Amino acid sequence: MMAVTMLRTVPLILLAFLVVSQNCEARSFVIDYDNDCFLKDGKPFRYISGCLHYFRVPRFYWKDRLLKMKAGGLNAVQTYIAWNVHEPVQGQFNFEGDADLVSFIETANSFGLLVIIRAGPYICAEWEFGGYPAWLAKNKSISLRSTDNKDYLAIVESWMHILLPKLKPLLYANGGPIISVQVENEYGYFPACDHNYLKFLEGVFRQYLGDDVILFTVDGDSENLLKCGNIPSLYATVDFGSSTNPQNAFKVMRKFSPRGPLVNTEFYPGWLDVWSVPHQTRSAQLVAETFDKMLALNASVNFYMYHGGTNFGFMNGGSYNRNRGLLPSISSYDYDAPLTEAGDITTKFHILREIIEKYEKIPPIPIPANTTKFAYGKVEMTHLSTFLDALPKLSAPRGPVYSSFPLTMEQVGQNYGFILYQTQIPPIFAWSSVVLSISNLIRDRAIIYVGKIRQATMFRRHEDQNVTLIIGDKLHLDILVENMGRCNQGFAEPKGIIDNVTINGNILMNWQIYPLNLTNLFSDGVEFPFDLVEKNNHMLSIDDSFQPSFFYGEFAVSAAHDTFLHLPGWSKGQAFVNGFNLGRYWPVIGPQITLFVPSNVLSLKQRKSVSIMLFELDGAPESCFVEFVTTPSLNGTVHPIDFSFQ
Q1: What is the pLDDT of residues 491-506, one digit of tens each?
Q2: N or C: which end of the chain has fewer CB within 10 A?
Q3: Catalytic residue among 184, 186, 341, 616
Q4: Confidence of residue 4 (pLDDT cuts 50, 70, 90)
Q5: 212-235 per-position pLDDT tens digit
Q6: C-alpha separations of 45 from 202, 298, 490 in Å
């Protein structure tokens, strides 16, 4: 009887093996140049995709967001890969937790979503330094995005040696969901126009990924951009928004990809926000009309963004405008996308879903509900310490770096956030008014103290501007510099003080430079340094209210829900909840007024209470509280950035 059973089982095993083998053999994703389309497993296919950056969304919410994308009618998800997330220190790699790229791709695959990877090494994305790790800017003379610098090429190859082997098993031909990989990003905008650089990258990608994946480029719908941004061996695609006529844009693409599918790799349903500029929105109806026209042309379309997420921590980028200088991105990356920053479904989501239904069959799955939002109410904040009083704790264990002349943040190993420069003013300037020349040297905002008294605040400008200091008998000079986000346009940009500082034309020397780690305030296994509270728990004096200072509060929670931190009356600073860096706040400049707080952040500590820490730079309100609310505010009144005030 057992022998008979075994004989019956063997054919079943063989049949299963043959089916699996045939399926593996049938798996292919290629370009059909004869019929101007993609072929998926030999059948015509077009993707309708949306961008979701895993590094802007807590892993806790990956499934929720991806399922909503699937329910919205998408069949693919696109993501950049942020090099700086994975190699924060040269040679030290992180692919765990929120940085678990492979798990993100596998999660998308589990929902039946194909994946489009934009591997960089440069990504822009309004992300800090365009995705490059900060340590690349340590060498002030480094040349990026070209073959001019052999050291840069070697570093890129070293990174791809780590990254690309992780992607190869996930290629569609190998049983995974990855159907195409972008080489570089919008290279046509970069002045180098170095086709040998694109050939170098293509060679690296092919070395590790092989020939079973489509390699592509994307640029704006301009012939000049595509000339510099593409080489014939890479498939050229374009990007454009709802105000563009798709036929005109694709006509430009056809000059570089004469046959094959039409592709809009970045179709903009919204736009990015920067400080001091009104919140950007785009008409849902106009977006839908342009989208409809593209699908009628059988184009493949990717929404940039479908879900934007958040620039948590210090990871916002900035663009450099010739007339206005640095324009840092806000902490929110809501993008007026079909899914909001908090992952909520919008009117735009439903309108676009209706357009998709005209052309494709949408899976019969329910649209997931929006997450619960909860208003935890007002929380009183206690003044803990001025910044200068907390300096020993913030700079531990390294302490200061000693240098005859100022060093950049990168040169002392401080990648993000804040750094303090200290020196002595020569005695000959005691009891006098002097001119400090620094404004064109700071990256990006400086608070200047003399004798621990704040005398000036300066924001970087591209023209020289001096500041007058009043010197008494206290000759101690402190300059607290904030990195507001490296330029995301592909240029190396050192931060901190980048050259010599002078007083009345005399170069200041013998600096003590303090790399600052704000997370040191949470490093003792308690929520904040109680010794500072005992010392500083007093009513704010007029002097204290203008000093960069730390404030603390806490509130009880019985259940963790998404919420938004509202900071009425606060000026500018950094906000932490349960030790998690939510990002920058700057409501006096706008447009962002609230910060998104995901529910998983409220559950980070094994306690019933939630802690809040603010590093306020410019002055706390008289009513010292914050408030947790259910509704975000991203379209507040905007004001010009104060480039200099005293």
Answers
A1: 998 999 999 999 999 9
A2: N
A3: 186
A4: very low
A5: 999 999 999 999 999 999 999 999
A6: 25, 9, 34
- CA-CA-CA-CA torsion sign (529, 530, 532, 537): positive
C-alpha 127: how far from chain center: 3
**Token output for 277:** 């500029």
CA 444 to chain centre: 18
186 a catalytic residue: yes
Query: HSE-up of 580 (CA within 13 Å, CB side)?
Result: 19
Whether residue 124 contacts residue 220, with contact meaning beta carbons closer than 8 Å, is answered with no
Q: pLDDT above 90 covers what percent of the chain?
A: 85
pLDDT at 19 over 90: no
Adjacent-strand bridge partners of 596: 564
Copy the structure tokens of residue 262: 């039409």
As given in the structure block, the two tokens for residue 294 are: 């593209």
Q: What is the pLDDT of residue 530?
A: 42
User: What are 603's two structure tokens?
Assistant: 């559950």
- CA 310 – CA 57 distance, rounded (Å): 7
- Would residue 463 show up in a list of annotated catalytic residues for this protein? no
* The model's pTM: 0.93
The residue annotated as part of the active site, out of 184, 266, 341, 493, is: 266
Contact (CB, 8 A) for 307 and 322: no
Dist. CA 536–CA 382, nearest whole Å:
9
For 545-568, the DSSP string reads HHS-EEEEEEEE-SS--BEEEE-T
Q: Give the pLDDT band (50/70/90) at residue 20.
A: very low
What are the strands, taking DSSP E only, across 14-83? 29-32, 37-40, 43-45, 48-52, 76-80
